[in-house]
Every structure is written in C-alpha cells, then in structure tokens.
Amino acid sequence: MSSAATRTAGQDHLWSVDAHLEDILGTVRPLEPIELQLLDAQGCVLVEDVTVPVSLPPFDNSSMDGYAVRVADVAGASEEYPAVLTVVGDVAAGQAEAPYVGPGQAVRIMTGAPLPPGAEAVVPVEWTDGGLGEGPVTGMRAHSASPEGAFGQVHIHRAAEARAHVRAAGSDVKAGDRALEAGTILGPPQIGLLAAIGRATVRVRPRPRVVVLSTGSELAQPGEALGTGQIYDSNSFALYAAARDAGAIAYRVGAVADDAETLRATIEDQLIRADLVVTTGGVSVGAYDVVKEALSSVGDEDEAGGGIDFRKLAMQPGKPQGFGSIGPDHTPLLALPGNPVSSYVSFELFVRPAIRTLAGLKDVHRPTTRAALAADKALTSPEGRRQFLRGTYADGTVTPVGGAGSHLVAALAHADALIVVPESATSVEPGTEVEVVLLG
Fold first, then answer.
1. What are the helix and strand counts (H, E) for the chain?
2. Which residues fall within 8 angstroms of residue 271, CB to CB, at 6 or more apart?
3. How far apart are CA 198 and CA 374, in angstroms?
4. Which residues lie below 8 Å from residue 103, measured CB to CB, with a gap of 6+?
5. Interstrand relation of 276-280 and 331-336 (parallel, antiparallel or unpaired)
6. Is residue 53 within 8 Å of residue 159, measured between CB atoms?
7. pLDDT per position in the chain (440 positions), as tens?
8. Rounded to an integer, what distance in angstroms lies between the CA atom of residue 4 and that of residue 27?
C-alpha cells in the first residue's frame, strides 16, 4: 500500500467520495476460488459454468397419482359409460421395473414414478373409481393397507390425450445444457438444482470473512450496567449485521479500550480469520483517537506495500476515514468514524462494495434512483461536501428522517434510503429531484 510519506500527504489532502472508493476497489481483489461441499457453498459465487450431466427428469414420469393407460382404451370414457380396464400392477417412485401396459390394461402409478412401457398417458385417480366399483374417488388407499388395489378392474370416467399428466424426460433441463453460469450467487434454488443434477461439490469464491471491531473506553456491551460517562456499543452490532447482509461471514470483537498497543495486538490476533478488517472509532483528530495512533506507522514495519492512510473526505457525515492493509498477507483494513450514523453510512459507501468485490460479485453497489424531495423546508448542505441524509423512499418520492446529526441512531433505524446532496449544492428545495441510494 502507501508509504509513510504518502500517508502523511493523505491526511492533508481532501479526498472526494469517488476517489476514496476508487482507491479501495482498485486495491481489493476477489478471493481465490475453492471447492466447497454443496451445503457450505450457500451465498458464494460460482467461478465456472455448470453443465448438466444428466437430463431432468431423467425419464418420462407421472405428474399425478392415478393410472397409466393407452389413449385408445379410454377414448370416449364418461361417468355414464366408463372405460373398464384390467389393473396389472403398481409402479411407485424409485421402482426399478414396471409392468407392461397392453391393450385393455392399466397400471396404478404414483407421482414421480416412471411411465410404464406401453402406456401413453396418465389418468388422475380422481377421474376413476379407484378400483372400488363405485363412483369417482378422491384418492388411493395405501398399498400396505390394500395391496389388492394393484389388481382387479378400474372404471375410468374421462378420456385422456396422449402424454397427459406425463413429465417428459429432459423437460426441465437436458444433458449438456448450462445449468448455472459463472457469477451466479448460490441461493436455495441454485443449491437445489446442483443437487438435482448430482453435484456434491462446486467451485466458488468463498464468502469473505470480515472482522468488525469498535474502539472506545466509553463503550459498554448491551446487557451490562452503564457506568458514569459510558454508552452502549452499537456500532459493532450494526456493522456485524451489515457485513452479514452484504454476504460476509462476520466476526464481532468486543470494544477495545483507548490503548494503542492493546488495539494493535487485538487487530493482529484477528488477522488469522480475516479477509477484511473493519474498525470503528478513533480516526479523527482527538488526543484519544487510538486507531490512528496504533496503525499510522504500521507500514514502516510491514513488508513493502503495507500501511494505512488516514484521510479527510469531502463528505458529511464520515469525513475522517482510513484505508490500507495490515499484516503479512496485506489484509485490507477500513477504519471508519465512531459516530453511529457516520459509521453506518461509511459502511454502505465503502465497506459493502469492498466485501462484494472480495466475494467476486459484478454488481457491488446499492441500487440508486431519482426521487422528488418531500420536505417541509429546503435542505441545507455545506459547500464542497457530498451530504448523505437519511430518508424513506416510496412511489418516486423521498422524505428526510431526522436531522443531519451523526449521532441520531433512532432516525437511522427508520430510514430505508440515503438522500444524496452533491458537493455543488448548498440548498435543496422541496420538490427537487435528488439522487437516492436504496438501502432495503
């Protein structure tokens, strides 16, 4: 990464949001592919096309419980003049062999069972008397309770066309087809398809492992009693959840006190399980901003290319930021501000795209749209800063939620969008069309 001289220059230079993000995405690389068992691959991204080795379904099979018949034998059948066929056996799903269906014959068949040789269609059991010699039935008796139902006669009350209620071999996918293409995220349906075509493992980019760590001696853990001057640590919980939402395997580290050596040792201990480290707090200009103290000189001791740049960005909230790499593997580290709203907005703008880049995804950004501003008065914004305000989006309009304060957690919890006020604007009137980042 950058040298110490570059890091010092980075502190004096006011970075744009776009330049900071470009630097991050230009440095972070997708993780190396690995072969995973199918159930471990959920949420991962395929790195190669998957071809179907065997057609689905692999054979013609019944889509109904009923009777496999020849079309000519049931032509013209009705309740008044049913077709009467001789039942010559059963065929169930998974059965290796099925009886042959000759003229005037039927085979009782279950859903998913192979279509017997000689049969041309399946008549649902509801169109028959179920072999009971009475009117139409609603279902079959269990074979174990009534094995004689596999033989005797069945009255069929409706005609059936050729291939009626038959799932054709290859009607889902055919052997040689492309089942899934590289870049596909493996969700439950995709995992099911891979299993259906017989794949036990798959080659993917693994889900990134993200360590989230908050700093501050004032932080107490939820569930503990607050001491004098303390507040609860909300950032690490919010960012842990946000990392998981972005597709990562997240690890949350309890708040680290304002001690540079302790913080540095904690981060170094976490590198063994991290593809990305995210810290929150300690990156501003205060005397106790320990992230800067702990990491600002790390590049002098690491191999060439390591180090953390601490920067000021032309944005609100989230002006102080840090980015670089740490440790022998040059693990990326993003240092976010400590105010809750600043931390979360910074995550959405910078960390989420980094996680999705590590995962090998093509689309790494939240969707954006344009919307009319619904507000009681004009929004103000500092000149030269890109401001991100919380809002709720619906039906082409966006409404601000709460104020601009970077400590307003309750307002953040009710927002589903970020209203973007560009650097060139100092005021935005109600009704103006604005850019909106959709968070939900």
1. 11, 29
2. 277, 326, 327, 329, 331
3. 53
4. 70, 72, 73
5. parallel
6. no
7. 443 333 444 456 899 999 999 999 999 999 999 999 999 999 999 999 999 999 999 999 999 999 999 999 999 999 999 999 999 999 999 887 889 999 999 999 999 999 999 999 999 999 999 988 888 888 887 777 667 667 899 999 999 999 999 999 999 999 999 999 999 999 999 999 999 999 999 999 999 999 999 988 888 888 888 888 888 888 999 999 999 999 999 999 988 887 888 888 899 999 999 999 999 987 765 555 677 777 865 544 444 456 889 999 999 999 999 999 999 999 999 999 989 999 999 999 999 999 999 999 999 999 999 999 999 999 999 999 999 999 999 999 999 997 655 456 788 889 999 999 999 999 999 999 999 999 97
8. 17
pTM of the model: 0.83
Q: What DSSP state is assigned to residue 347?
A: I
Q: Do strands 307-313 and 14-15 pair parallel, antiparallel, or not at all (unpaired)?
A: parallel
Burial of residue 61 (number of CB atoms within 10 Å: 0-12, 13-18, 19+): buried
| Beta strand 386-394 pairing with 219-220 | unpaired
Cα separation, 439 vs 418, in Å, equals: 7
Q: CB–CB of 431/371 below 8 Å?
A: no
H or E segment at 357? helix 352-358
Locus of tokens 């501050």: 216
| Residues 21 and 349 sit within 8 Å (Cβ to Cβ) | yes
Secondary element (H or E) of residue 433: strand 433-438
Residue type at position 190: Q
DSSP-assigned beta bridge partners for residue 56: 173
CA distances (Å), origin 154, targets 141, 148, 240, 317: 14, 12, 63, 77
| 150 within 8 A of 143, measured Cβ to Cβ | yes
Q: Is the peptide bond before 317 cis (omega within 30 degrees of 0)?
A: yes
What distance in Å separates the CA atoms of residue 51 and residue 194, rounded to the nearest whole number?
10
In degrees, rounded to 5, the angle at the alpha carbon of residue 11 between the alpha carbons of residues 10 and 16 is 65
Residue showing tokens 């990326």? 332
